[in-house]
Amino acid sequence: MSRSVNVSRRDFLTTSSGLVLGFLLKRRVTEAQEVPRALLAGGIDPPPSHKPNAYIRIGTDESVTFFIPRSEMGQGPTTGCSQMLAEELGCDWSKVRMEIAPVDPESYGLQTTVGSLATRTTWVPLRQAGAEAREMLIAAAAQQWNVSASQCKAENGFVINTTNNQRLSFGTIADKASKLPVPQNVQLKDPTQYTIIGKPVKRLDTRDKITIRTQYGLDVRPDGVVYAVMERCPVFGGKVASLDAADARKVPGVRDVIQITGWEQYQMPGGVAVLADNTWSAIQGRKALKVTWDEGGNRGVTSASIRQMFMEKATDGNGAIANKRGDADAALSRAAQKVEAVYEVPFFAHAAMEPMNCTVHAKGDGTAEAWVSTQSPTTARAVVAQVLGLTPEKVAFHTLFCGGGFGRRGEGELSYVFEAAEIAKRVKGPVKLTFTREDDMQHDMYRPAALIQLAGALDAQGWPAVFKASLACPVILKMPNGVDPINVVGLADLPYAFSDFLAEFHEANTHVPVSFWRAPGAAHNTYFAECFFDELCAAGGKDPVESRQRLLANAPRLRNCLNVAAEKAGWGTPAPAGRFRGVAVSDHIGSFNAQVAEVSVTNGRVKVHKVVVAFDAGQVINPNILRQQIEGGVIYGLSATLKGAIHIDRGRVVEANFNTMDMIRIDEAPEIEVHIMPSTEKPGGVGEATNPVIGPAVVNAIFAATGKRIRALPVKPSDLA
Amino acid sequence: MPIEFTLNGKPQAVDVPPQMPLLWMLRDTLGLTGTKFGCGVALCGACTVHLDGRAVRSCQTAMQAVAGKKVTTVEGLSADGSHPVQRAWIEEDVPQCGYCQSGQMMSAAALLTTTANPSDLEIDRAMRGNICRCGTYSDIRRAIHRAAGLMKGA
Questions:
Q1: How many folded domains does chain A comprise?
Q2: How far apart are the first and last CA of chain B?
Q3: Subunit contact A628:B100, Cβ cutoff 8 A
Q4: How far apart are CA A150 and CA A106, in angstroms?
Q5: Domain assignment of residue A561, given as a range
Q6: Does B81 touch chain A (CB under 8 A)?
Q7: Measured between CB atoms, does B88 come within 8 Å of chain A?
Q8: Cα–Cα distances in Å, from A529 out to A149, A313, B5?
Q9: Architecture of B84-153 per CATH?
Q10: Contact between A666 and B141 using a beta-carbon 8 Å cutoff
């Protein structure tokens, strides 16, 4: 199996010294291990402080507009960030409007919304910016009144002189305040004073979404726009061998057919673009293309051949050590009872509801304009600039709302931006490239398939004590030590106090492009580890909740979530007739959660009736948005547990649309009961916290119901027959 | 020859091929982009509109089937968010990414015209054709019950 394509793409991602893919990925190389750790812990990229004007505009009409340096894919950062700014500013929340900030690295640093980091990276700088602006407004009012600033306060859009209750509205002094120096070392509020942070204020993006004023990338129609779709080689890495576009050109509405040679070294091998008066004509024209492909060396690859390669890698004894404690091998060799299992998962697609799309106008005068729903506008702008041979500042960039992201629109997954810019380079006027659903599903950058060999043993009393894992998986982030820090999340950092622990990583690349999905690493490892933990519990005849409680003695926040979820779910009491419970936990992205799933299995059909989630996010910014994310993550993870996946045959993706890659629908959505732990710890991430946990909770419940261990996802009826 | 129909209460004529799906005519020809493209084959419901009051998938509705009929798109619910379904969606803060919600609201509005007070089971049946990848289903369910209440009160 050829790996050359993947390796060269990785080189591109990690060593490009040019503009493409920006600061984040460059930093990853230079700081090797540290940056991914920081990325996972939420330590990167605070936008520079002391520029409150970059974030806040107060109009003389008393309007307050916040410029949010994060993208909105639905996880709510535009509201959460606004709450942080408003809390410290002291404005009237009902007057707040928000806009997604323009791309401006000087003001905002790297604008990227990945890794459930939006809140964590803005928590300090945005509150500071709000406080700085507040102090400037107070100083301006104090000057006007000729009193000391210390006797003034800001509240609900006014500066108030506390000695005589005189008031000046923000709008009347905003101009004067903006000319004052930015104060240093502003005092941030104590959490006990919060009136906006922690409150379930309404989302600022709802009304526009309901009244159809929100513009997603796919809704952009600049004057004179031409609509494009692209035909790509179904086998990843293949390229055009010959093209006959005569019939396609005859299709009414088709304007042109362009062969895109692409960027082979970046795993974007190009294809054939059909341009037309509207999207439908472009699709019709594409159907009339006669393309023969040079499919390359991967046409024989199947899911089964990939699995076999994973199995060989996982058992080759050459794993790179991701984490280690004690001596797991020695402990296993002397164990009276050894538990062993192999678990695996296929590739998964992101399947955002808005298919990938990008609109670019290369104006031919040394400038360009681009309209993109992207999680990573700084990098997307750099991509457009690089393809067009411009500097990024020459690209007027519009960051639009995303119809879902889940990683597909983030750093390293901007193939759709490359392609659109490549087409735009050869076209006069603006071009909109649209992926059909089939394009989106068959030319995604997938969640990696993975296989893990697990071995474990018990202590003398029968509690889980030894845990050894050999994970084989395609690399997302290549590191000199051979451990992909992304793909071992949720495994190398397992919270359990095993006496002997070993986690090894085996690089097992395929020609299938892989990248960040919702909760990369944790999405597969939490399933592997939490289900195998249950196998250890069963081997020792121990209760799954009690075993976790014992081994989480040094993880108090996670243990507390476990206790609350177990209690609220009635763990230890009989479930309703025909229903069975399973539990799983996760310490991930700075948050903690435990889930108990209540499941029935009838004639091979799994029904998830209810899920109880106990969640510790630290300081909560907005409890309603948190609840939405908890529920949304459960549904997203449940789709990957029970519904569609991506399979490879003849080197290409089998599934093409939602008939074969289906997702949880409303009638399959369980009741989700959410319990949020009160906390004043710093905020954790939220968007990717719950989707890794629901799978193992459900699979462990299936074991309770049937006695069958499901060691490969998604669950198939034949597993339960 | 132009195809004539009624769009959001007003007469409309468009000169497009009869096989062209209503979806792409709305989005690309008329610029009514509230109706969303999700799958193109009637599997996700993002493109749901009303044809003579019934919820249909506009991606699988050819323009020739629209001639002489009444089409209501999400823009036709109301521009100011005053339709009970929109009000309920706003009050329940339903959307996450929001992309599928046009189709969700159109399916819900059609349901409520035939079933004034739908049960959870009736909601399941009417709404299972609409995928929400963000997983807003519990909010959608609450919003439909709320909209039913608002319509009764209206």
A1: 4
A2: 42
A3: no
A4: 32
A5: 303-348+446-720
A6: yes
A7: no
A8: 57, 19, 59
A9: Orthogonal Bundle (1.10)
A10: yes
